[in-house]
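Morning. Coffee machine broken again, so started the prediction first thing and wrote up yesterday's gels while waiting. Chain of 458 residues, entered below exactly as on the submission form.
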Amino acid sequence: MTFSRVAAARDPDALFIRGDDGRDFTYGEFWALAGRLAAGLVAVGAKPGDRIAVQVEKSVEAVALFYACARAGLIFLPLNTAYTQSEIAYFLSDAEPALFINSQAQLMELAQGGEFDDAVTDASTICAILYTSGTTGKSKGAMLSQGNLVSNAEALVSAWRFTSQDKLIHALPVYHTHGLFVATNTIFLSGGQMFFREKFDASDVIGLIPKATALMGVPTFYTRLLQREDFTRELCASMRLFISGSAPLLAETHRAFEARTGQAILERYGMTETNMNTSNPYDGARKPGTVGKPLPGVDLRIRDGMIEVKGPNVTSGYWRNEAKTKASFTDDGYFITGDLGAFDEDGYVVISGRGSDLIITGGFNVYPKEIEEKIDQLPGVVESAVIGLPHPDFGEAVTAVIVPEKGVTLDAAAIIAKLRETLAAFKVPKTLHFVDELPRNAMGKVQKKALRETYGAR
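Came back before lunch.
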């Protein structure tokens, strides 16, 4: 299945997007916009297989550009708008895109194209590369095919009971798999409607809730809503589903939300390389602290505590990185997620941690090595260790433990200011701790687990 075949089955007159800028798009209008963008890309020389890098603020055109790439056989490469110039330079050198779009004006210019006849594509055609972080080395580009994305959206439509009657509040960013694929593709396949918001604003969302049926968010959305007195059970009467992901949802948030609204947040588990793997049930117990059971079509197993998955949703590998691709799959074809977990007594998956030290903060992946290298280069620093600690809003907070040179007193505010010059804001540590030495094992390896235990208890 391809996106073009999905679009052919949609009612062109049905409303797809209701924007916060006053613009509405039916399915027909949206698909025509994607066609004009595709025509514009081809007109400037883009050819099937070319990468199209995009770093723009959220807009309908930005989402339509993904579908334009799918229609033209191009590969969409979304980049976080918080990335700095030095960070962007790596992605551009690695992906070698035919075009780098970094303004809404460029999008609008491309959208002046005419009608477009779709390129020949199939389920195996790569339509997106999303860069994902690890704990060592550089970010890796996960290659995702139309079949990966469409099959996963089909599974979510079924699991979460989406229909053409649904109205989803879309307040997520669209350079991330959650907002770009999980939210948008699920509605696109179900024929429903989106309230498309540039960003999350609790007051705005509260105004939309009586008109909507579903909300997809990160834990921060729900903690912010719970802080408001006007977020009540009565307000949520028309809502049938609240979904959370991209970062761990604290069990206390889950319980507080249910007590306030009478509805249990549905938590699920996925990653850039696989999209969604598991989900708490639509019907049945949504258990705090768990991410539910494998989605239809997804085979999930746990070996030596490590979660491994296989299915049509799983990436074929990493862009120009055969070694990492090979290392990420077992001999019998399972993708090694790097996440540690177990099945509980009811067969629900419980994530217990990560085999790596990857930090997920506010739904964004952060790998410590990149930040440690920046800190270690600063005057007066001997070494550092970066860890993630539980945080009620962000799931995890980036935290740095730093060893200063003897006799040197380091200024935390100055360090943070310096890091902000070259790192996206979500990567900059929220807290710094200064110590005489880092805990190590007999082999000299820094014991980050011990650091998490020490500072997580404060």
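The radius of gyration is 22 Å. Going to sketch it on the whiteboard this afternoon.
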